[in-house]
Amino acid sequence: MSSCDLLIQNVTIVDGSGAAPFQGAVAVENGRIVSYGDTTGFTVHEVVDGEGKVLSPGFIDTHTHDDLYALASPQMLPKLSQGVTTVIVGNCGISAAPVTLSGTLPDPMNLLGNPEEFRFKSFAEYADAINDARTTVNVAALVGHTALRNNHLDRLDRTANAREIDAMRSQLAAALDAGALGLSTGLAYLSAYDASTEEVMRLAEPLFEAGGIYTTHMRTEGHAILDAMEEAFRIGRHANSPVLISHLKCAGLDTWGRSSEVVASLDKERERSDVSCDCYPYSAGSSTLDLRQVDPRVRIQITWSEPHPEVAGNDLQEIADLWGLPLLEAAQRLRPAGAIYHSISEDDMKVFLAHPATMIGSDGLPRDPRPHPRLWGTFPRVLGRYCREQALFPLTTAVHKMTGLPATRFRLANRGLIREGYRADLVLFDPDTVADRATFEDPTQPSQGILKVWVHGLLSFSEGQATEARAGRFIRRGLP
Ligand code: ZN
Ligand code: CU
Question: How far is CA 122 from the centre of its chain?
């Protein structure tokens, strides 16, 4: 007779692969799943009755900016409370490592934290710091192109020369050796906009040998989105590496309704290359305040402003009216600032969310004093609003987009599925009540219906609260 530490019984198992649910139990020993389905014959230390609710692999948040937040707030409650057990950091070209700051922190690296928090000259030092911090959830990381540019270029409004590209490449290669998942870019931001396609192509070359991924916040998500996609595909083909398009969307009113064109381009490339994307389930985006996105037809909420903190929480239009200034001038005065742009059509967003190549990524901004609600609500919102209420896809598909699919795409070995020998990162939730409660007005409300979360077999969240357990680890890229 075998024994196990923990038996979660009387559950509906949604195993992360997309396969049909089944009734049974999951047995855990030493942080790993040792048996599932029919677990009779086990001597058990602790039994949890799942009362017929759904047990699935813990969710993987594929797109986060939790790089430094994970160190400052290792409880990671915005994520843990959603059933997330792994976050992927280093997206959109910005990462905490490897970084050497000489002058000021370039936009949008300021989204991650304050200058003094950027203290990891190598990727390996960052990985050690995550393990030392004892985070509740696991952390895996990409290396940001803009972070590398910051390290090696005297100014960011130009493309890198051959010597600088070599220097960036050797830093990327060292990070890949230390377990980085791949390279991210944020070509839309002014800190990387002047980088040529060739700069990124040459920089991305070490990805192939390492088995890393290329992820990109594309050069534009507006009018020229198809060209931007073509650029991403070209970089992926040159590097002979998988491509992931970050937070896929048609941004701005002039691009609304073009999701079918975008999907056609994606599907065409998928016939010959390995391409996927991530998406958050909201019709508004958020980042630093970008003057190029100021449009009188779009509602823009100001979430923070360095020179004018007193107006945070108001709409840009209200602030402009108050100051008696045109929109653009008011925006100029507010910067550096953060903003939420209500500039996405929900219909387009649903097309992207439902696409089989799409994974779920919150893109939450944990350092924002008035964050976009995606930080606290993304995963329950997909399960509640889009899966249960709108039947955009079955529950097995929703869970697959949050677990098995990203684990494969990012090479997170032995995670994302309920299988023997896999890590016991698990979430128990009620499919009938799971829902987001964070709103644009009240953005830090925890979700409902997430009942229990285990990380490496330790109960880390229960009854709406974090437990004492902090079992997260830094996760290195797994073997091909
Ligand atoms: Zn981005
Ligand atoms: Cu992002």
Answer: 22
- How many residues would you count in the chain? 480
Paired with 340 in beta bridges are: 286, 301
Q: Could you list the pLDDT tens digit for every one of the 480 residues in the chain?
A: 688 899 999 999 999 999 999 999 999 999 999 999 988 888 899 999 999 999 999 999 999 999 999 999 999 999 999 999 999 999 999 999 999 998 889 999 999 999 999 999 999 999 999 999 999 999 999 999 999 999 999 999 999 999 999 999 999 999 999 999 999 999 999 999 999 999 999 999 999 999 999 999 999 999 999 999 999 999 999 999 999 999 999 999 999 999 999 999 999 999 999 999 999 999 999 999 999 999 999 999 999 999 999 999 999 999 999 999 999 999 999 999 999 999 999 999 999 999 999 999 999 999 999 999 999 999 999 999 999 999 999 999 999 999 999 999 999 999 999 999 999 999 999 999 999 999 999 999 999 999 999 999 999 999 999 999 999 999 999 975
Cα torsion through 168, 172, 174, 176, rounded to 10: -170
Cα(34) to centroid(ligand 2), Å: 36
Q: How far is the CA of 94 from the centre of ligand 2 (A)?
A: 9
- Please tell me whether residues 10 and 71 are part of one structural domain: no
Claim to verify: residue 205 and residue 92 sit in the same structural domain = yes
In a shared domain, residues 118 and 50: no
Q: How many domains, in total, are found in the chain?
A: 3
Closest listed ligand to the CA of 363: 2
CA of residue 63 to ligand 1 center, whole Å = 9
Neighbour count for residue 227 (Cβ, 10 Å): 12
97 and 44 share a domain? no
Domain that residue 151 falls in: 58-283+344-411
365 alpha carbon, closest ligand:
2
Residues 391 and 449 in one domain: no
Instruction: Establish if 426 belongs to a structural domain.
Output: no
